[in-house]
């Protein structure tokens, strides 16, 4: 694999750490800035909003620029956002820093996925994409715990200074290692938007939203489930989350490797495994050993879908994949937010902390059904399309290719 992928992975590691680390620092931030813990929790909501809205807007603005230049610009925004957070005198400036940082999240990951797929031959595209997402997965295992430890021992601002350094290293790595000649963008904004008329692109986006929504419907409420239902002490949650993160890394790696061989079958197997694991979690949650094993399997099955889903979107948006890749990240965040909301409704309705698992299983089953539908449509003849998604006049009809 090209060394440039290492620079992209390090950058997504920094971005993933920025997203997750605030969860472990909420009490420290709340005490220091004299706000409530729930008020500090809005820093998470603000970040999510920045991801969903900011990513497509930023990439749309730079759609005609060379991809390397855009990636460097996005890492520059990442550095500025974390600098703003580190230097923030109060809550409002910290919120602004979080939102600024979030705007580069989806745009960087989406564009980096397109660039990664372009750097390798066709047989390794999903593995290259998996390396981009590996940074985010490793952030769960290493970055967030490390950032939390730094913040607790040296003050929460020290964590953001650490992220500034990681961002600067990623910036230099991209500048030195990523070949400029592989980054030219030829499609304009009209062509990028037009690919959303392609049914397979829309199905792939829906698959992403349902798949990630399924995983995080359960994971959002896993801490109270493990303490209130399984019987773990609060001190055991951090090591258990590291196990979950290890499952994410393993699933992402395995999913990328097998998706290069057979993309849709890999997605089908992973989603079936996720559906089954989430359904079983309501039963295994009552046993400490089985709950820990299920947590790892849930992470592995959930992230085994990620490289294939992004590769699917990129391939089906062929000719103008950049905006579609970025919207894929936004779709995943919409799914995560919706899943967390539905899980909260079930708990508030009195169905208990295991109820989000059943909702997650239903969402995973919906993603599996969409995968089957996508495969069925693939077997039907489809008209040729231009880069802007329209069928040329008099175009011949050709059979679709398999995932």
Automatic annotation (TrEMBL):
Residues 382-403 are annotated as: Disordered. It is found in: Cell membrane. Residues 4-379 form the Major facilitator superfamily (MFS) profile domain. Its main location: membrane. It is a multi-pass membrane protein. InterPro entries: MFS, MFS_dom, MFS_Efflux_Transporters, MFS_trans_sf. Pfam families: MFS_1. This is MFS transporter. It comes from Streptomyces tamarix.
């Amino acid at each position: 694999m090209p060394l440039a992928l290492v620079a992209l992975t390090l950058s997504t590691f920094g971005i993933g750490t920025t997203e997750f680390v605030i969860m472990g620092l909420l009490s420290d931030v709340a005490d220091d800035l004299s706000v409530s813990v729930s008020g500090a929790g809005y820093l998470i909501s603000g970040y999510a909003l920045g991801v969903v809205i900011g990513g497509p807007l930023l990439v749309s603005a730079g759609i005609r620029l060379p991809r390397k230049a855009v990636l460097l610009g996005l890492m520059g925004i990442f550095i500025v956002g974390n600098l703003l957070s580190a230097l923030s005198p109060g809550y409002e400036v910290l919120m602004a820093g979080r939102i600024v940082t979030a705007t580069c999240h989806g745009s960087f990951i989406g564009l980096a996925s397109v660039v990664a797929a372009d750097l390798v031959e066709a047989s390794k595209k999903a593995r290259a994409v998996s390396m981009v997402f590996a940074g985010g997965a490793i952030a769960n295992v290493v970055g967030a715990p490390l950032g939390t430890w730094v913040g607790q021992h040296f003050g929460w601002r020290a964590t953001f200074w650490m992220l500034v350094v990681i961002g600067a290293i990623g910036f230099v790595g991209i500048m030195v290692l990523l070949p400029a000649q592989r980054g030219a963008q030829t499609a304009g904004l009209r062509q990028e938007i037009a690919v959303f008329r392609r049914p397979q692109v829309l199905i792939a986006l829906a698959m992403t939203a349902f798949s990630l929504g399924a995983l995080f419907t359960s994971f959002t409420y896993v801490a109270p489930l493990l303490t209130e239902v399984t019987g773990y002490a609060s001190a055991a949650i951090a090591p258990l989350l590291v196990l979950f993160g290890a499952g994410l890394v393993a699933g992402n790696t395995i999913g990328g490797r097998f998706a290069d061989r057979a993309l849709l079958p890999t997605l089908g197997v992973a989603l079936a495994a996720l559906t089954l694991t989430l359904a079983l979690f309501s039963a295994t949650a009552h046993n400490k050993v089985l709950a820990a094993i299920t947590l790892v399997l849930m992470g592995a099955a959930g992230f085994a879908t990620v490289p294939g889903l992004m590769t699917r979107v990129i391939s089906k948006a062929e000719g103008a994949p950049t905006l579609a890749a970025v919207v894929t990240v936004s779709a995943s965040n919409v799914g995560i937010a919706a899943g967390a909301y539905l899980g909260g409704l079930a708990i508030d309705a009195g169905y208990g902390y295991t109820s989000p698992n059943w909702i997650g299983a239903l969402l995973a089953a919906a993603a599996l059904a969409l995968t089957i539908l996508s495969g069925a449509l693939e077997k039907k003849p489809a008209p040729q399309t231009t880069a802007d998604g329209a069928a040329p006049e008099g175009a011949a009809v050709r059979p679709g290719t398999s995932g």
